[in-house]
Amino acid sequence: MRFMIVCSCNVLSDHDVRHAVNTADDAPRNAKQIYDCLGCSAECGRCARTIKTIINEAYRECALACQAGCPHSQIMDDAGDEPKVAPAAP
């Protein structure tokens, strides 16, 4: 499996961000919350948009996998990023 470095200041990969999303007690919704989960802080801020994209992708994948039966589907609805109910599988 290949990893993409998304934050060169803190050497964080896309895997680190997804892991924080999937294992944090309080589901992170933005880059600052990801940094808090990982015990670091933003330096230059260039990665914030990419981290937010990875967060949204992780929640979307979870919501589709569990068909809106998990807490992540509600988080996405609250954040306004995705519909609350995932489309039914064919």
Offer a quick outline of the entry.
It is built from 4 helices and 2 strands, in the order E-E-H-H-H-H. With 90 residues, it is mainly alpha-helical.
Shape: globular
| Helix/strand structural class | mainly alpha
**What summary fits the major beta sheet?**
2 strands, antiparallel
Helix content: 40-55%
The strand line-up of the biggest sheet is: 1-2
CA gyration radius, whole angstroms? 13 Å
The strand count comes to 2
**Unreliable residue stretches:** 82-90
Can you tell me about this structure?
- This protein has 90 residues and is mainly alpha-helical.
- 51% of the residues lie in helices and 6% in strands.
- The chain contains 4 helices and 2 strands.
- The protein has helices spanning 14-23, 31-38, 48-66, 71-79; strands at 5-7, 12-13.
- The chain has a two-stranded antiparallel ribbon.
- The chain is globular and about 35 Å long.
- The model is unreliable at 82-90 (pLDDT under 50).
List keywords for this structure.
single chain; mainly alpha; two-stranded antiparallel sheet
